[in-house]
Write a structure and sequence with these properties.
The chain is α/β, with parallel strands linked by helices and about 260 residues long. The chain has 10 helices and 8 strands.
Length: about 260
């Protein structure tokens, strides 16, 4: 259920109606990007604590939350273009983008293709690097058994198995053609060999219990991006910033202000 507490606004970017919230009046802006299967509402508690120090903007990426679903499938590059045009249309200056999971993948793409756009970026449990051997095995299993589960009576069994194994993405993206094709596109967008091209100062958040974007992936990003710092939030999963928002906000404040 979509339940946005803060008042949202609308803007048209590349013929797509984009929903966003805009809180605070500081000259320093934090731009929050949510992950796959999420929405801007995931950032509201964080923004409540930061809006007195920064202008805080969070957007619903196309196809999520209250933003319009595009007529054609997207890839990471297309999402990156939407984010860049959003900053231009709102004439945003002095921006530090904060991207969780898929939002982090978008920022990695921007950092590589447009290295002078942001002087600082924050990647929160980011995706975008090559899948671990565990995840590659998972994808292979799903590819093999997927035709079996197309039989109508077996679909509930498929959903039960995927949930038990923590593979909900394969359920969530079995709906519209847009989600299926877009999900497939973004999984092929990996940046292992290009991370060294990022010139921004980067703060990378990760956690030991993240099965979607493992700590090893964040460590790899930290090694490859020259000017980067890795912050591990203990006892957290993929949504590390919600597990310990105080620790997250303090580290974010220190990074942005220094």
């Amino acid at each position: 259920m979509y339940n946005v507490v803060m008042q949202s606004k609308k803007i048209v970017i590349q013929n797509c109606l984009i929903n966003y919230i805009d809180e605070g009046t500081s000259s320093q802006t934090l731009l929050f990007l949510h992950g796959w299967r999420s929405s801007l509402t995931v950032w509201e508690e964080i923004i409540k604590d930061l809006k007195d120090s920064f202008r805080c903007i969070a957007i619903d990426l196309p196809g999520f939350g209250l933003s319009q679903e595009p007529p054609e499938p997207f890839n990471t590059k297309k999402y990156s273009e939407i984010v860049l045009e959003f900053t231009e249309k709102l004439s945003l200056k002095n921006v530090v983008p904060v991207g969780h999971s898929f939002g982090g993948r978008i920022l990695i793409s921007i950092g590589i293709s447009n290295p002078k756009k942001f002087s600082k970026m924050v990647l929160v449990n980011p995706s975008g690097v090559k899948l671990s051997s565990k995840n590659r095995a998972r994808d292979l299993i799903v590819k093999i058994v997927k035709p079996v589960f197309k039989i109508g009576l077996l679909k509930p069994l498929r959903n039960w198995i995927y949930k038990k194994m923590g593979w909900e993405d394969y359920i969530a993206n079995s709906g519209s053609q847009f989600y299926q094709a877009t999900f497939k596109n973004i999984l092929t967008d990996t940046y292992n060999n290009s991370l060294s091209n990022i010139k921004s100062s980067v703060l990378v958040f990760s956690s030991e219990n993240d099965n979607d974007a493992p700590l090893a992936s964040a460590e790899f990003i930290n090694r490859e991006v020259k000017d980067s710092v890795l912050k591990i939030i203990p006892k957290a999963g993929h949504y590390s910033f919600l597990k310990n928002p105080k620790l997250f906000n303090n580290a974010l404040l220190e990074f942005v202000e220094n």
